[in-house]
Amino acid sequence: MDKSTTESHKEKRAPGVAESGQLIRKTSIRRRVSKDDMSENKPYGNKAEEYDKICEKVMADTGVQKTLEALQEKWRMIMYMHDDCMDLRTQKTEQGVIGRRARIKRELIALVITYVIITLPILITLYLAFLFVIWFVTTAS
Known about the structure:
Residues 1-45 are annotated as: Disordered. It is a single chain. The chain is 75% helix and 0% strand. The chain is mostly helical. The chain is elongated, with a radius of gyration of 44 Å.
């Protein structure tokens, strides 16, 4: 290839694409932080009184006041909804604990009843056998 063909080929390539055809991502190149970026906030002026006057003038505007009141009302509504949600979550947690305790009590009662049903006939049989042995020993002598 001659030089003119190579130059025209380079011009047709899309920006951000290497000669091999791979896309070069700009996010892969990290920007180094300079000392200027690390420095404290730069002062933008020494006219604090004028800034305060501008702030007072802007805050005195009825549109700004109405917008501020609307935002405050929305914030109160969001906080009310948040508190209500947290109360509901607490109630659900408490109900879950109460439900688990009730289930454990039911399981314990069922276990005791099952134990009594299984062991009671055995105990009665042993008691009757003991009484029979005592009767047999007393009558035999």
